[in-house]
Amino acid sequence: MSMPAEHQSDDQVENRDNQFIEICLQQKLLDTKTAGMLQSSATEQGSWIGQTAVRHGVLSPADIDIVESLLHPKNVVPGYEILSVVGRGGMGVVYVARQIDLDRIVALKTILVGSATHPTNAARFEREAKALARLQHPNIVQALNFGKHEGRYFFAMEFVKGRTCEEAVTRETVLAPAKVWMIVRQVASGLLHARHHDLIHRDIKPANLILLPPPEGSVMASDMEVVKIADFGLAVFANDHADEMKLTTADKIIGSPAYMSPEQFSHEAVDFRSDVYALGATAWHLLFGAPPLRAKSLAALSVLKSKPLVVDRSSLPVQIPEDQMRLLLRMMAPKRDKRPGSYEELLQQIDRLSDIDSGASSHSPVALGKSADLLPPDDSTSDALTQTMEMPHTEMSVASARDNSTGSHSKGWIAIASLAVIILLGGFAFVSNAKPMRGPRVYTRVLRSTPLFDGITLGGWSTDGTMIGAWNTVVAPDSSNAIASTSKRTAITRRISQTGPHRISLFLWPQSGSGVVDIDFALDSVNANDVRGCLRFTDNEILLGHKRSDFGTFDKFVQLAAPEAMHDRFVVVDIEYQKADWYVFLEEKLVGTLRIDEVGQGDAIRLVTPGGTDVRAQPPLVYFSDLWLSELAEQ
């Protein structure tokens, strides 16, 4: 979008760079110190500041795309003017925009240019637009326009200026039962309409329900609100004959764990009753101030959801009548055939609720099975469980189950297609003073990729005398195939054939109490005591440095906080051999760099676990999966 620097005067270049930096600071993409260093480097090199930022790893191509869109607001999508950024997800950005010909404000969702290169992302984005375009209902955000311009997909929809149910319950702690059931009824009405068009939402939760004042002249009470269902990005067609229209992401179970149905955890077929479950969990949150279940891990949460709730009503902050509680529990029944059999039935049951305006009752507890922890969330894990996520897993089916006994490897392809842009449960906070301005990161284009793990055997891995412990292929907690050791103190090497610029990508899942887990790179497979780079995972930190042996002294250069819920999922690592440095990324975030002249190039990686910190923790202490070697070239 920008005019090439060779066609601009020095004043124009300086003004352009200043505007670029100003937007980066406004969007909190850069801090002041890094921005100053970036400007100095761009001036010295005589290059465009955006290109300099990408080469040094301080901004991603997706970041550049957002900044350029804000710099040139009328050049992004014909007929629309970008006004501001509303939000950003794993593959797209939502802007507030003005539709120029009609002079109206819309929400404009665009797929990031880098993400559009992955066919799954582009297809899912297009299908969201087509799915929403089918729906014409007062309780569903309205689709307006969809198209593609210069490789960029865009999707214009009704701009709804209101508060979400999540914001409402955060501010008010709990909502009045009458208001909650009015919300539930409207959402059920909207989902009934979607059901008539063979659509399942799959991500019903308070954050995806927008509340608006009643329209002028409405018969609704002034203290009631209209609900709009938003974000059909995870919607899926229930029609068995529309496989090409399914909006699943291969190898993922998708949803927000706190509200997800048990079948979404256990890889079973989903249908409209999965949305009924999520709506029940949402209603519970609005009534009582927290999701119905909380747990320290996804595995524990899945177990709780598989069994009926036992509710000690004396512990609840609000007492509701017996029939309201029974309907809630029926909506959240672990077995789908125990939930309402249709939205029509659900609406009828809501309409028959007695004493719906009452918030007080002294009925006895309803005991139906497994006890639930009903305390409000008080840790970051609980927060993470309310966020939309993509859990690494075998492909989930719709309307019919599929064989997933062979494991899967598409996580690796996602890591290769980009810098592992799947953000499962949020990012991680930098707590270091690492200097990002190292040598340029010029090799980012993937020429070819080779698996380092075939998903079945340890073929290619050194199982000779250099191996420590008992390594094998095992089934990970998400049922995918992985490499792991059944010993606590372990190490294993994989030779790397690539001598030029390359990227090593891998997924790992440290278990609670695993202690230290090292990914050693730039390793000399012949001289085991030569210096090597090391990315170290502890129970709560990520460290980057180097060492000279498997269990020897570790010299730390970078220290970061660990990703949220790291012990409940796979996290992805990318290690790049660039021009002068090793670049290390964790979930698309730059961890840091190590100079090649300090640690060398090496010819292998080594996975090392000195042993767990918790004597009760039993191996495997960590699972490794989807390891790939990609040959890189200049973009």
UniProtKB/TrEMBL annotation:
Residues 80-353 form the Protein kinase domain. PROSITE patterns: PROTEIN_KINASE_ATP, PROTEIN_KINASE_DOM, PROTEIN_KINASE_ST. SUPFAM superfamilies: Protein kinase-like (PK-like) (SSF56112). One of its GO terms (molecular function) is ATP binding. It comes from the Bacteria. It is an enzyme of class 2 (transferase). Residues 361-385 are annotated as: Disordered. It holds the Pfam family Pkinase. Keywords: ATP-binding, Kinase, Membrane, Nucleotide-binding, Transferase, Transmembrane, Transmembrane helix. This is Serine/threonine-protein kinase PrkC. The gene is prkC_13.
